[in-house]
Amino acid sequence: MQTLLIQKKMTATSVLCSDTTYVRLAEHVKGAAANATYLSPNIQNQMLIAAADLVRKKIIHLVREAGCWALTADETMDRQKREQLVIVIRYIRSVDNAPKHCEDPVAMLDLIDDIAADGDCHDEIQLSGRSIGRSVLKLLEKLGLDLSRCVAQCYDGASAMASERVGVVAQVREKADLADYFHCMAHWLNLSASHAISVPTVRNAQSVIKEVISLFRASAKRTALLKKVIEEADDTRVSKRHLTTLCDTRFLERHTAVETFRDLFRFVVHALDEIKTWSCRTTARSASTLYSAVMHFDFIVGMVVLEHLSGLLLPVSRKLQSCGLDLTDAIKDVADSLSALHQSRTEEGFNGLFREAQLLAEHHDVAVRTPRVHQGRTVFPQAAGVRDTGSESADHLAEAYYRINVYYPAIDSVSSDTQLRFGSPQRLAFSLSLLLPRRFVDQFSEQWEQLEDAIVKYSSLLQDSVGTVKKEYILWRQQWALVEREERPDTAIAALTTCDPAKLPNVRQLLLVLGTLPVTTCESERVFSKLQRTLTDIRSTTKEDRLESLLLLQCHRDLCPTTEEVLDECASSARPRRLNILL
Questions:
Q1: Where are the chain's structural domains?
Q2: In 3D, which of 225, 205, 215, 208 has the Cα closest to residue 271?
Q3: Which of 117, 153, 227, 295 has the fewest CB atoms within 10 Å, i.e. the most exposed one?
């Protein structure tokens, strides 16, 4: 029966396609022996692996031509409960005679199986930095990459990966001296922004929002009630009908949920007030508790501050998830966002937010007042210089209290954590940005002194001595002396297009290093998205080799080999075959 179905399928194919190859393939399926049709799953896997190997070879060839590269990696657990580590190589290659950032996945590794294969199967499998590092190094050596040209490594900040003493960073640095660790900036900004909830008022507001959203989304009946309340209001300014779930992993992505909650706040309050009267005691009790929580001025202020902070940082967070980012651009964008945050840290900046909170409170008859807090638990009022003398209004006292105890600490906690995450090795590598023409200053000696340490560090990648590099740097500056600052390149990629490799080979190599420095691990996360779409519930038993091959072919559609190349690769393998598969 199966043979008949195959014959019918191939007959239809040969009718629809007049190409000689398909006709010969149809004839082969009809006339070949049952054990030599080459249609088995094993042959399919061999074909896929051969195609993926060809793609991988092309990428490794491009990386070697680039002259330097950076390692990024991230891990996740798939549907089959396998710990998958995705390895991505960042480098610069020429596309249509123009340099371009490339972040290419080259391998996916089942960490549990790989670590178990290296150790005693009777011992506990340790997902430690040492064991993961050994697996990564073994894979890189298998790929044939020159570790001496690895200029950086980038991970998400997990201790097993990022520890410079026992993590993967330390293991790779033993083989690759230049591979400084760069924290993924998307994770870095997200972690720094999450420090806003170190302020109790903001943290409590977020917790209440999460519980209210869960209450409505957990029940079709409660969701229908909220939708009915919104529709009965007939407010054309409101386009949303449902609350959005708070993102569990990305703090800044919660801005959408907080913004939606605030837009629908009056409808949520109305719905909670109605649910309090329902016959289900558990639901009514939960609604009553949450109603009391949201009808408090402390919650309203926390919600407004949370939306403001996450809203300022959300645009740059989303940009950091895009492809082909330049480190200098990314740091500038983060600095601009933090500058906007600092500029809003004023009395005038908070007054606007406080007025918004006041309007929400007045609309729902919530009293504007400070919470009852023991004086030893707050910086207010002594450190603020504000005392309740009876002559000040309650609104003025509340505004001063929340500005000093909530708004300022939230901004300060985000800013201070952000500054601590950029260490001295990263600053040294980033000092190569002084090679960018837009950053040239008149004080040559001072700028060269800042740049020289980085040049010494990467001297193993250069053709000539530091003295020769200094002469090239002088010529490079002279090239831009008559060009307006606004017209000069401000990124490594833009500078590379104007740097003559024959005249300034060392400057060009340093610009390549600067452009190769990684920004995020988002490319690995994009592979995770492809992994979820590929490894569905129906395909959850797919073996590792087949899964890795499918993902590589999906990620590199522009590098996919031709049919002839795949068949040649399979035919050239040492495994004996019953007949020649070259068609």
A1: 2-37, 58-184+520-562, 192-420, 424-516
A2: 225
A3: 117
Q: Check residue 569 and give its pLDDT.
A: 82
Contact between residue 431 and residue 450 where contact means Cβ atoms under 8 Å apart = yes
The pLDDT tens digits for 410-436 are 999 988 888 777 666 777 888 899 999
pLDDT digits (tens, 9 = 90+) for 219-266: 999 999 999 999 888 777 777 888 988 886 777 778 888 999 999 999
Distance CA 519, CA 186 (A): 8
| Amino acid at residue number 283 | T
What CA–CA distance (Å, rounded) separates 123 from 131?
A: 13
In angstroms, rounded to a whole number, what is the distance separating the alpha carbons of residues 410 and 408? 5
**Angle of helix 297-319 versus helix 200-217 axis, rounded to 10:** 90
List, for residues 319-343, the tens digit of each pLDDT value.
Answer: 988 888 898 888 888 889 889 989 9
DSSP state letter for 379: S
**For the chain, what percent of residues have pLDDT higher than 70?**
89
CATH number at 58-184+520-562: 3.30.420
- Max Cα separation, the chain? 102
